[in-house]
Amino acid sequence: MPKNYTDEFKRDVVAVAKEGAATQRQIAKDFGISKSALSTWMRAAELQERGLVGPPTGAGAAGVAGDAVALREALKRIRLLEQEAEVMRRAVAYLSQAQLPK
């Protein structure tokens, strides 16, 4: 079962990792966390800094989980729209080459 870390602890670990004095693997080992947890926290902090995800709210993970779901759905919708746009571009290119009757 995963451990629950406080938001303050996560911010502190991310701050140390951003200093770049040691590798992420070494920092994770020093703080007693997994490298994947540190990587996840680093990505979350980066998204938060860019304003793509709001700060954690309430019980911690509940706010982040909701934001992650919304972000995942938005990215899925973007991929679908990009695919539809590509189909339309190909259709226009195909039809512009065809000899249409007058």
From TrEMBL:
GO terms for biological process: DNA transposition. InterPro entries: Homeodomain-like_sf, Transposase_8. GO terms for molecular function: DNA binding; transposase activity. Pfam families: HTH_Tnp_1. It comes from the Bacteria. Gene3D superfamilies: Homeodomain-like (1.10.10.60). This is Transposase. It comes from Glaciibacter psychrotolerans. The lineage of its organism: Bacteria, Bacillati, Actinomycetota, Actinomycetes, Micrococcales.
